[in-house]
Amino acid sequence: xxxxxxxxxxxxxxxxxxxxxxxxxxxxxxxxxxxxxxxxxxxxxxxxxxxxxxxxxxxxxxxxxxxxxxxxxxxxxxxxxxxxxxxxxxxxxxxxxxxxxxxxxxxxxxxxxxxxxxxxxxxxxxxxxxxxxxxxxxxxxxxxxxxxxxxxxxxxxxxxxxxxxxxxxxxxxxxxxxxxxxxxxxxxxxxxxxxxxxxxxxxxxxxxxxxxxxxxxxxxxxxxxxxxxxxxxxxxxxxxxxxxxxxxxxxxxx
Length: 254
Known about the structure:
The protein has about 250 residues and is an alpha/beta fold. The protein contains 10 helices and 8 strands.
């Protein structure tokens, strides 16, 4: 099965057209940790095009992103120029032990071998270090109407999600997965962001079902045109608040 994340179109979309959910999540994480000072060092595992790494600015003195897909890394160095980036897998992290105070991973652990990842994370964390796992689903709801939910359902029917080997994760699941870590805290969240229709279309074009449709021969221009036309009827002429729902979990090494 081809990797939908290792393409130039997907990398460019992730770099330029993903909503700013990550900094809002990490703001809540820092409040949960009662943290007033930045960490000395942070490693963002599965950093993609660097958007999640960029959200670490000011939260750690030294930030490093780890990503296996070269197409994503080419953008990451532009998106978060203050950070360093290395190519590598979560199951075999190419850094020395006992050197990282904070590990973040945003939506990437669903795709890795956790039996290999957790010992690696425990190996590189300093005493008292924290592993923060978070993820959020596509923005598909308005706060004050069901019209975007209805649109997203039709979008997903028209362009189905590809088969995926991703595993479901949540704070409760993570609490039981590894003897190397214990769950400190975990929460569900709902974050609303004001988005224009134009940005939402750019964002929705980064979803994996669009990549799957393109691989099946549907032109990107056709998907974009359908999205623009149908969203115009429900969006109006101004920005609308779109809701992103997800979770975060803070874990410490045992």
